[in-house]
Amino acid sequence: MLFSCVPFQIREKWVDVSHQAIESQHFPHSLGFRSQALKMRFVSKDTEGTLLHAVHNLPQVLKILGERFQAQVSGPVYHQAHVGENLSLIYAPYYFDGKLYDAVLNEPARQQPEALDIDLADVKRHKWNLKFLPTLCPNCGWDMEGERDALVLHCRNCSSAWQSHKDRYASLKFGHIPLDEKTADIKYLPFWRIRAEINGIELDSYADLVKVANLPRVAQEAWHTVPFYFWGLAFKIRPQTFIPLATRLTLRQPAESIVADYPESENIHPVNLSVIEAVEALKITLASIITRKRTYFPQLDQIRIRPKSYRLVYLPFIESRIELLQPMFNININKSQLFHAKNL
C-alpha cells in the first residue's frame, strides 16, 4: 500500500509492480502481469541456468517507484509511506541462441543486442535453500497454532505468543480486551498498540492528543499523565480502510483493561502485518489526526517518530454475514476488505 500526504489530504494506492533489479538495456524494466499470472517456484541450488546478481536493493527500488508515482500527483508530496510490502526477487528466463530469446514466449526479445551488456563470467552460483522453523513452543514444547500467512504463532498450553526473529522465535507481549456482550458470533482482530517518542510535535499524553486533534473534550489535568499510544493494524486490509481504522482507534485511545491471555474464542484473525510495517504507517496516522494540516504537512519530513515499546492486542468484533462490528468503539468493517490466507 502506498500512502501519500499531499495538499492537504492523504491519498492511498494499491501497488503491485515489478522493476528490473539489474542494469541492462536488453531486458524489460517490468514483468508486467507475469508475476501475477504465471506459476512460480522457489529458487534452490539445483535451479538450472545462470542467476544474475541483483544490483538494486529494496530502498532503491522503492525510491524509483516513489518518484514514478510522485510524477503522477500534482503539487508537492510532503511524505510517502509504503506499508505491507511483500518483496520478491523474481528471475525471468531468457536464453541466447544467436539472438536473445524470451523463454516464456519462446520469441526473440524486443531489444536485440550485438553483445550482452552484462558479464556472465562474473556471475557465481547461488546456494540458496529454504529454511524451516519447527512450530513447537520454545517455552513448553507444545504445538503452536497459526494459519499459513500468520506472522505470530500461539501456544494455548502456556498462553504465549511467538514471532520469528533471525532464525529463531522471540516471545511477544500480547493480550485482549473482552466483550461484555454474550454472543457466539465474535471474531477477534489483532492490533499493535505502540508507544513512541515523537519529535517535532508535542504528542506524549492524552492531553496532547486532545489539543493536536482538536477533540471535543474539556481538558483535565489528569490527562497529562495518561500516555498516548498509536494503534496500528496487525492484519492486512484494503488501503482505503487502513488509515481510517488506525486513525479511529488512535483517536479513541482504548483504555479498557487488557487481559494478558488469549480470548476463549477460536475465531481469531491471524497477524499478517508485522509491527515493522505498522511503524511505517505511524506518520501517516499522525498526519490523519492532525487538524492543522496546512501548518504541519510541510513539516512532516522534520517530524521524527521513534517506537519505544509495543503490544499485540486482540479486539472483539461481532460478526455478521457481511461485516464486523466493534460495539465499544462503534467501528464497522466490511469483511470483503480483509486479506488473509483463506481468500488469497
Keyword list:
globular; 7 helices; 344 residues; 2 domains; alpha+beta; six-stranded mixed β-sheet
What pattern of helices and strands is seen along the backbone? Answer: EEHHEEEEEEEEEHEEHHHHEEEE
Helical content band: 10-25%
Number of strands: 17
Q: What would you report as the Rg, rounded to the nearest angstrom?
A: 24 Å
Biggest pleated sheet: 6 strands, mixed
Which structural class do you get from the secondary structure elements? alpha+beta
Q: Quote the beta fraction.
A: 15-25%
- Taken together, the total number of domains comes to 2
Shape: globular
The overall pLDDT average reads 89
Task: List low-confidence stretches.
Answer: none
Helix tally equals 7
Distance between the termini: 16 Å
List the helices and strands and how they pair.
Elements: E1 2-6, E2 9-13, H1 34-37, H2 58-70, E3 79-82, E4 94-96, E5 100-102, E6 107-108, E7 152-155, E8 160-164, E9 169-171, E10 174-176, E11 186-199, H3 206-212, E12 230-233, E13 236-237, H4 239-252, H5 275-280, H6 282-289, H7 293-296, E14 304-319, E15 323-326, E16 331-334, E17 338-339
Parallel strand pairs: 10-14
Antiparallel strand pairs: 1-2, 1-3, 4-5, 5-6, 7-8, 8-9, 11-12, 11-14, 13-17, 14-15, 15-16
